[in-house]
Amino acid sequence: MVVLAASIITRGGKPLVSRQFRDLTKDRVTELLSKFQGLVANSSSQHTFVEDEHVRYVYKPFDDYYIILITNRQSNIIQDLDTLKIFAQSMNTYLNGYDENEIFESAFEIVSAFDEVITMGYKENLSMTQINTYLAMESHEEKIQEIIERNKEFEAAEERKRRAKEISRREHERKLGMPLSAIEAGNRFQASNDPNLSNAYNSYYSNASPAAQQSYYSSQHKTGITEESLAEPVPPVPHAGAIGGRGMSLGGGRRNPIAVASQRQSRVSTAPSPPLFQETEDEKPTNNGILVTVKESISAELTRDGTIASSELKGSLDLRINSQELAHSKILLDPKVDVKDKSYQFKTHPNIDKNLFLSSNVVGLRDQKKAFPFNDQTLAVLRWRKVGAADDNSLIPLEVSTWVSPSDSEEGVFDVTLEFEINANYGQALKDLRFVIPVATEKARINDDTNDVNAEIESADEENGIMVKVGQLDAGISGVVGLIIEAGYEEALFPMSIFFKSSGAEKAISGISVANVKSSREDATSLPFDSQATLKTEEYLLT
């Protein structure tokens, strides 16, 4: 058999979808389809095929439409009818109702199914199950590429933080009177192994200004010079004007200022650093039989004035069953949940009946005779994803804005004010709220005059920066926290990372909730169940 084209037309002859498997132009296919209407109208037989002098039309009527195979006249009619049956089954898979607009919306999926059945005009030996499997198959290369892109973004973020810390450190050294040129000169000097040059530099900086001594000490400390080597007596350097070649010598009762600075820095560097921030995991909730959990994670990027630059929501519907008697079940979602909403990308587990989910908001197994696992382990049966547009705050649970101004009394110090409140669309309390400012400094404190949520600085270290803990924030309460932070420049304070979570919430951001859980057996009785919603941040940034 040779299939030239497969088409869907209305009873009035209007072509909706057509796929050519041979070298046919659009005009030729349109001409053949226009002839089909006249052949069907003049046909008095009960057969579902008609012929003209060149081709054969094998067709099947459904509602107000025809699905047509255009083949050559020598094609095997038995095989053509079998192919037509496969095409009709594939259409039933992607169409909930035979509406013209729905056919247009599902045209890509229908044509893809046609391509799986026919290759270069010849039928593949495939079942409908195999076709669905091939169409649903995920790309391994795409997953690898996504992982590579995520790793690149993570490395770029880490490099940005490292450079910000380096710039802040250099600015701090500049304020202490340590010019960069002097540090680099010290480093170049240390590359030499000549002991005479080393003694000369030690002798010179022992009588230099305090700022020059600190600069020299910094360069020595970075290249690994120990306190003992700095504290040893330094041979005198010959003075040009001294009689008999004798030079100036250091007084015996005077302490080497470089050694004193080294000892002081040694005591500071050995102080223990604060522990790193680790998000605590909630305890596993008690399961009384059937537990349905709506888990969601939010990623967002907000500007300093509170504008939403981007947002992304990911979620999953997890099921836990601990009793064999309850394993034959199906989940009925709230009727208000629009599973056909194109802004949400819903994806069901391979064992879940997708048609039942799209048509009835029911999450159930394809094979009603089978049961869900009842080992009290979490099973994700439904996932979804939504990307919010710019300035769209529908996915934003926490709105944040900042005010940054230089301090009037101290140079290099900034007054930072954080304003935040829970979005009215979400309207639920958030726990473990923290702000992380990527600045490595010990000069940071809370401004008590602007701290109406009892915030506190939890830790300050080079790894995490300054971590401000707010704790729980209730709905309807706006919070304000003021900080006084030493930083080289304003840009060093950003991007700020925000962490929070919500456990046992009443509703999810997506609005997905469970209305009932019923038995998948014939009696369809309601089963006892518990449901909850959780939310956490994945990457919530203030840039």
From TrEMBL:
**Primary subcellular site in the record, as a coarse category:** cytoplasm
Q: Where is the composition biased (Polar residues)?
A: 262-271
What GO CC terms are in its UniProt record?
COPI vesicle coat; Golgi membrane
* Subunit architecture: Oligomeric complex that consists of at least the alpha, beta, beta', gamma, delta, epsilon and zeta subunits.
Role played: The coatomer is a cytosolic protein complex that binds to dilysine motifs and reversibly associates with Golgi non-clathrin-coated vesicles, which further mediate biosynthetic protein transport from the ER, via the Golgi up to the trans Golgi network. Coatomer complex is required for budding from Golgi membranes, and is essential for the retrograde Golgi-to-ER transport of dilysine-tagged proteins.
Species per Swiss-Prot/TrEMBL record: Lachancea mirantina
Q: Which UniProt keywords apply?
A: Coiled coil, Cytoplasm, Cytoplasmic vesicle, ER-Golgi transport, Golgi apparatus, Membrane, Protein transport, Transport
Protein name in UniProt: Coatomer subunit delta
Q: How does it sit in the membrane?
A: Peripheral membrane protein
Record's subcellular location: Cytoplasm; Cytoplasmic vesicle, COPI-coated vesicle membrane; Golgi apparatus membrane
Region described as Disordered:
215-285
For this protein, the record's CDD domains field holds:
AP_delta-COPI_MHD, Delta_COP_N
